[in-house]
Amino acid sequence: MSKSSAKSTPMTSQAAARIQSSTAKSNGGQVAAGSFAARAQSAAATNQGSAKGSK
């Protein structure tokens, strides 16, 4: 499956929180900068900001 045919679902803050929570639980409470969890939080913040601007 190529990227162009895949459906894109924006990262939500709730989904990012679940990812970050799971990562922190498995790493003694730590979430490394640049990790998938950190990038998910960043994407959710970006998506939330762009959603406010589009209304």
Written overview of the protein:
With 55 residues, this protein is mainly α. Helix content is 58%, strand content 0%. The chain has 2 helices and no strands. The protein has helices at 13-26, 36-53. Helix 1 (13-26) runs antiparallel to helix 2. It is globular and about 35 Å long. 9% of the residues are buried. The mean pLDDT is 87.
Give a quick precis of the structure:
The protein has 55 residues and is mainly α.
Features:
single chain, 55 residues, mainly alpha
Strand and helix layout:
Elements: H1 13-26, H2 36-53
Low-pLDDT residue spans? none
Helix residue percentage: 55-70%
Radius of gyration, in Å, reads 13 Å
Number of helices: 2
Q: Give the terminus-to-terminus CA distance.
A: 33 Å
Q: How many beta strands in the DSSP annotation?
A: 0
Arithmetic mean pLDDT = 87
Rough outline: globular
Strand content: under 5%
The major sheet is characterized as: none
Structural class: mainly alpha
Order of helices and strands: HH
